[in-house]
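Hello everyone,

My group is preparing for a crystallization screen and wants a predicted model to guide construct design. The compound we'll soak is adenosine-5'-triphosphate. Before spending weeks at the bench, it would help to have a computed complex in hand. I've included the protein sequence and the ligand's SMILES below. Output in structure-token form would be ideal because that's what our pipeline reads.
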Amino acid sequence: MIRGKYALTLALPKGRNLKDGYAALQRAGLELPPVEGERTMIHGQEGKVAILELRNADVPLYVDLGIADAGVVGKDVLLESGRDVYEPVDLRTGVCRLSLIRHPDSTGPIRRIATKYPNFTGRVLRERGWVADVLELSGNVELAALTGLADAVVDVVQTGASIRAAGLKEVEVLAHSSARLIVNRQALKLKSDLLRPLIERLRQQSQALAEG
Ligand SMILES: Nc1ncnc2c1ncn2[C@@H]1O[C@H](COP(=O)(O)OP(=O)(O)OP(=O)(O)O)[C@@H](O)[C@H]1O
Ligand SMILES: O=P(O)(O)OC[C@H]1O[C@H](OP(=O)(O)OP(=O)(O)O)[C@H](O)[C@@H]1O
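Reply:
Good plan to model first. Here are the tokens for the complex, ready for your pipeline.
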């Protein structure tokens, strides 16, 4: 149990968003423990700032339930999680989009749609009144469109190189994504002396990125 052990507990995702998220928090003035090369999943010393290193999809859960006071995660993951966490800052890093992608030969109505984002995709289908089966995959989603497992997929696009290389078409952008700071609502009140200035500084950094 870690409740109360650290001054501030932050949830950061392994992978792409870790480096930029860590750098943004450090630039905002937090004294962060080193995470590189450590085998442990909880980094930090008692009474100081701790970092929990999590899978992307688990970050909203840890913050919503207050195990972490705040975290960094992609908007795509937030849209999928459906968790109602406070999202005060768009960090403007990890920019990508969630798009509807099809094989050029798939031109008929969409009946089967494969994705790592089933909740988000289901919501889009309902909003549009489209009737299709959502097939949840754990990765290599383009393969579903290439093999005919599905007649459309919803996946992350950044440069578009992956879909071009696979000979697929980005039919429509469904949502834009970038990394967000998320904060537990109760922690915001209890640790406002730490969290308010952090939010303020991250907002300034984000503004500078937008202008730069
Ligand atoms: N080109 C991209 N491809 C995938 N994700 C990207 C890309 N650009 C930015 N992102 C962001 O990075 C996040 C994914 O990071 P990463 O690829 O490290 O995760 P992962 O390998 O899918 O691991 P996990 O299982 O933890 O989700 C996405 O949620 C998105 O917000
Ligand atoms: O538009 P692009 O710039 O090509 O980026 C999009 C690709 O990047 C991600 O894959 P990643 O490389 O993370 O591998 P993954 O399938 O293991 O997530 C994502 O799943 C897309 O395939």
